[in-house]
Structure formats: structure tokens, C-alpha cells
What we know:
Elements (H helix, E strand, L loop, with lengths): L2 H6 L13 E4 L10 H6 L6 E4 L2 E4 L2 E2 L6 E4 L1 H4 L3 H5 E4 L7 E3 L4 E5 L2 E3 L4 E3 L2 E3 L3 E4 L7 E5 L2 E3 L2 E4 L3 E4 L9 E3 L2 E3 L2 E4 L3 E4 L4 E2 L5 E4 L2 E4 L3 E4 L4 E8 L9 E4 L9 E8 L8 E3 L19 H7 L8 E5 L2 E3 L1 H4 L5 E2 L4 E5 L4 E5 L8 E19 L2 E2 L4 E21 L5 E21 L5 E11 L2 E3 L2 E2 L8 E12 L2 E3 L2 E2 L7 E5 L6 E5 L2 E3 L2 E2 L5 E4 L6 E5 L2 E15 L1 E5 L2 E12 L10 E5 L2 E2 L6 E3 L5 E4 L77 E7 L7 E7 L9 E6 L4 E6 L9 E5 L12 E9 L2 E9 L4
Parallel strand pairs: 1-2, 2-5, 3-6, 4-7, 5-8, 6-9, 7-12, 8-13, 9-14, 12-16, 13-17, 14-18, 15-19, 16-20, 17-21, 18-22, 19-23, 20-24, 22-25, 24-26, 25-27, 28-29, 29-32, 30-33, 31-34, 32-34, 33-34, 34-36, 35-36, 36-37, 37-38, 37-39, 37-40, 38-41, 39-42, 40-43, 41-44, 41-45, 42-46, 44-48, ...
Antiparallel strand pairs: 10-11, 57-58, 58-61, 59-60, 59-62, 62-63
Amino acid sequence: xxxxxxxxxxxxxxxxxxxxxxxxxxxxxxxxxxxxxxxxxxxxxxxxxxxxxxxxxxxxxxxxxxxxxxxxxxxxxxxxxxxxxxxxxxxxxxxxxxxxxxxxxxxxxxxxxxxxxxxxxxxxxxxxxxxxxxxxxxxxxxxxxxxxxxxxxxxxxxxxxxxxxxxxxxxxxxxxxxxxxxxxxxxxxxxxxxxxxxxxxxxxxxxxxxxxxxxxxxxxxxxxxxxxxxxxxxxxxxxxxxxxxxxxxxxxxxxxxxxxxxxxxxxxxxxxxxxxxxxxxxxxxxxxxxxxxxxxxxxxxxxxxxxxxxxxxxxxxxxxxxxxxxxxxxxxxxxxxxxxxxxxxxxxxxxxxxxxxxxxxxxxxxxxxxxxxxxxxxxxxxxxxxxxxxxxxxxxxxxxxxxxxxxxxxxxxxxxxxxxxxxxxxxxxxxxxxxxxxxxxxxxxxxxxxxxxxxxxxxxxxxxxxxxxxxxxxxxxxxxxxxxxxxxxxxxxxxxxxxxxxxxxxxxxxxxxxxxxxxxxxxxxxxxxxxxxxxxxxxxxxxxxxxxxxxxxxxxxxxxxxxxxxxxxxxxxxxxxxxxxxxxxxxxxxxxxxxxxxxxxxxxxxxxxxxxxxxxxxxxxxxxxxxxxxxxxxxxxxxxxxxxxxxxxxxxxxxxxxxxxxxxxxxxxxxxxxxxxxxxxxxxxxxxxxxxxxxxxxxxxxxxxxxxxxxxxxxxxxxxxxxxxxxxxxxxxxxxxxxxxxxxxxxxxxxxxxxxxxxxxxxxxxxxxxxxxxxxxxxxx
Length: 781
């Protein structure tokens, strides 16, 4: 007897289907077809495509057929067929596609391993994509299905879309949506959609992951009442259920009727290790979790009692230890790595964004991570939108290629602080480093080096469009380049109709190259805003235009500009737009003097004030800071006599006191009364003065002897870090020493703490002689 005849004898459950054609799909070849797609393609509206158990590795498209697609759960009511009848998308697209106005029912399947459908607005619907088109008669019912382990940029489990004038109302009945992953709407992503949740045959939505709306996301979808047996938490806030009201007349929101929660949030610091286990409590490093995203899901915090996710040193990626990206964060939380060797690695071609914080989050701190990827990236590593009071500290982005995006992208943000950020050897079709739009931000002690940008929107190091302010302080921009004649390497500008204050101070901008545009553009002209350049060093940059392109009310103080550009400063003629810039220049060393300033068409106002010079600054040319001033530099003590109001930090870029000798120097590096001498045999009264080994790991021996081999007494040997802070000091004893003196430094500070790897300076003082050398401490690979 055939399966079709057996079906007709199945009893009362089949009464409603006896007058439609039923097409049998069985992977073993005993039905009408062996693939689901064949069954759909040969069906007619109103038919039932009945699928027997098996794993069907295919991507099913309804192709306009208004039919019922079901497993034997439909005819038997036996839930075992849900688990045994599987549509496996094989990461080749959406498992099920309903986008042509069909009236469709999907019943009794496990839908898994889908990866979404590429559409004009992104990759959508890992498990199911349902788009009603513009047909008012279309609709979808999803009944008694398990939708799990799917991925997509939008809607990891299900993507549902209606239109602005025709809200889509799909039915969800007895559906479990779990462990799906996306950028937005981990479980469900709705646009102009109001899903109806069956109040009797309850659904479950839990343990999904997304950068925005872990379980459910809605965009202008009217009021949505979510009725479920199990949701991730009992009282979902925006982190788990995100509703975006875009249109002014949209007053929609979520309401919930939840019977059970999958987890409880924990108001406690949590701990993560690459060797951890997600079944652990996560309450200490003795019981760490494995997945960073699970820790950020579980942690609870508030503004009075902020909490931290602590991540142990190690490598965290999807391939190595099943990490889930993007990691999302709640307000008033910190994500802190053990040290800079705590690595988050992007190795998934779909989820290039590794950390994502969207929509009214605040008081968030991310510290001590290196970000890496061996694949070509399609979006920013860190992506932030509409947040405030965000701190990024001690982060490193190195050796990556971006087709689109940047290391960090922030849109509409207030009070963003960057400290100790390294962007190194990034190749991007857009922006290698930091991209800000409609933000207020400060960059401190950041380094952008050896980056290359290309493409129509390329800015190599930074692009900041500020609303109220943008400050770049104590930063290094070195050896960056681009190939775009229309873009600068660094842009600081204004958001339209804003007049922010833009400040660049204590920075080194050297050895950068731009073919036909300026190295850096800094303008606040809509309306006119204030721009300050204070104590910066611009040297050895090359361009066929200028080092700087500026606009606004510009104050230029204590800078050194010594470049291979057509001119040092260029001011556009914007008088046709009613914009007249004013540039005040005082106490600067500018190559070619006033001729180094190009005031286009004489349209702007330039005040050449006191203290400006045009003399070779006489850099030392050696060491980690090759733009130290030599002891004979004309820039020493040549800055403005009154530093009031300059807002300078206490330390210069190398960590030394910003003012030495009673008056500030020009440039980013303050001369400290001595030079870092080259490592030659004969220096001052010494025959040799060196440390071996150099670089060193655990300890090094510092040796010296006088030029005449006389015994040395009453010496002081001081060791400093790069910030000019004293680390350790040794004193000579009262008795005479032998001719050759040796001091072993064990790499510890004066309190016995092991010092960090890095660059150190050691200074020897005796008999009115002071000599300084450099050494490097490293960590074994």
C-alpha cells in the first residue's frame, strides 16, 4: 500500500486535508519526491507538502506557492517528528524563504543551520525569512517548529517584514526559537510586522544572541504582545527586547506575558576563561564561564553599583572556543581583559563586528584587549550607536584588512574617551582607525602607525564629526598613507549646523604621505567654531598640497611644522558661503615662515603674531622618539611665556614634565636638560656605558667605566619608564669602586613589583656628568 493511501486512512486529523492534494516528500525515495524543494515546485495553491523524517540539507523557497509545508507532526500530533524532520540550511542561505506574497503554513520541523538571504538592506532571516511584499492577502503561520542554531545579520531565527502601509501579522504557535545569532534580533527581527503569539499553544524564545535585541527586535511594528512559556528573562529590558520607534507617529512597544525565564541575571562580577565552562557559575576565576557573550548576557548592574566581566588572558574566537559574536553590553558594565594579550579574534565571515553597543546604553568601559582577524572584514570591529559615557582603554588593532568599515565606528555618541589605543598595519577601503559621526570624543595617548587607506571614502587614521567638542591629545600619527586625492589622512570636522571646539595638542604627526590632499584637515565652519593646535610636532610629512587644512577661528601656538609639503597650512576660500576663517599664529617654528601659510585668494584673516621662527628644529633623529629636541635646538624655551588657558597635560608625549626650565618648548616633546645619546664608545667622561643583554627578559647588567679608568664613587643610576616616572634607583657606596662597575637590575621597581615589558631609560649621574641610554624589556613568546 502506498504512503499516499496510508495518508488517506490516517483518521479524523486528515479530514481538513482530504479535498486537497497531498505531496509526499521522503528522503529515502519512496515518496513523490526526495527533496522538499521539488515537492513545493510541483505543488499548487492549497496543497499540502508532507515531509517524512530525515535531515533535508537544502534551502527551501515557497516561490509564490500558498501551501502547507509540514512534517508528520501534522497528521499524527506526535512531537517526535519535530526533532526528526530537519531542514538544514547548510550555512548556504535561509532555511525557508517566503517572500513572494504567499499564504504559507510551516509546521512540525526543526529548522537549523541557516545563514540568511542577502537583500538590499543586509543579510536576513537565518532560519526563516518572511516578507509579505505588498500583497494584503499574504501571510505566514509557523506552528510547532524548533528554530535553532541559525545565523544572519538581521533575524537569526526569523526575519519578518511588512510595509509602512500594510502591517504584516504572522502567527506563531508552539514555536521554540533558541540559540540563534545575529547583529539585530537574535531570535526574531520585525519590520512593520506584528506577530501574533498563540495564547494557548505557547511559544518559547530564549538564549538567542545579537548585538541589538538578543531575543526580539521590532522596528515601527505597532504594539506587539509577546505571549510565551519561556523567555530568556522574566522582565525583558531593551538589551533582550529592542523596539525602535523611527517614524514620529509610531507609539508601538512590547508587552509581555511570560510564564518562565531561562536564566536569572546576576548582580555580581563575572569571570571568563578560554578554558572555562558555560555550566560554571562564573562568580570567580575558579569557576569561570567560557563564552564572553554569555557573561554579558547574565551580568546585572546599575549606576550606583557597576559590575565587570573579567576575561582571563588567552585567545577567544568562534573556531577556538565557540565564542558568540557580536558581544553586546549593558549599561553600567565593564569588559576588562587580564592584559593586552587577551585576544578577541574574528574568524567568521558574517559576524565581523566583535563588540556592538546600540541605543541609549551608558557608562560602559572596555579595557585590555587585542583584536585580530585573518579574514577580510566587511564592517567595524567595534560598532557603537547612540550611547554616552563610553571608555575604551588599552586596546590594540593590528594587521587586519577591511573591505568596509574601520577598527572602531561610533555614531551619535556623547562623552567617548579613548586611552592608549594602538592602530597598526591596517589596510582599509574606508577608515583604518576611528570613525565618529555626530559624536563628542577625546583621544589620549593613542598611536596610529603604518596604516594604509584606499577607496572613495578613505581616511587613514581618524574621522571625527563632532557636535560640541573633539580633543586629540598626546597621540602619535606616523607612517600612514592613502591613495585618494580627495581625502586627508586625518579629519576632524563638525556635524552639520554645529560649531564644536576642536583641539589637537601634544601630538606627533610624522612621516605620513598623501598624494594630493592635506595630511590632516581640521575645520569648524558651520557656523564658525574654535580650533586649537597647541604644542604639536609635524615633521617629514609629504603631500603635494599641505600638512594642515584648517577652517574656523584657529589658534596656533607652540607648534613645530617642518615637512615636505607644498605648504604647511592651507585655509580654503569659503567666502562665497559667507565663511571667513581667522588664523592666529604665535610662538611656532614654521618652515618658510609666513610663506608656509596659504590663505587661498586672501579670503581669510591671518594674524602673524609674536614668537614665530623659521629655523631647523634640530631633532635628535634617534630612539623611540626621534623628534626629541637636541640640546642646541632653537625650539627649547621658545614657546609662549604664558601657558594659561592652553589646557596642556602635565606631561609631554614621552611622559616627561611638560614644562622644564621655567618655560615651555615648541613641539610635542619637552627638552629635559639632557639628550638621549647615541650608543658610541666614548661619551662625556665614560669609556663605555651599556646594559647586556638588551633587549632582556628577566634581568640585565648595566656596566660602565670612566674614560681614564679611574675608580668611580658617589654615582646615581636611575631607571625611568616611558612616562618619565622613576622605577628604580641605585646609589654608589662610599668606598671606591673598581674601574669597571656592574649593576644587575632584576626588572623590579622600588617596591619589588615586576615591571611591565616595554622601553626604559637609565640615567647615570656622577662628577657633574649625566648620560642616558635606552633598554627594552620583553616577554618571551
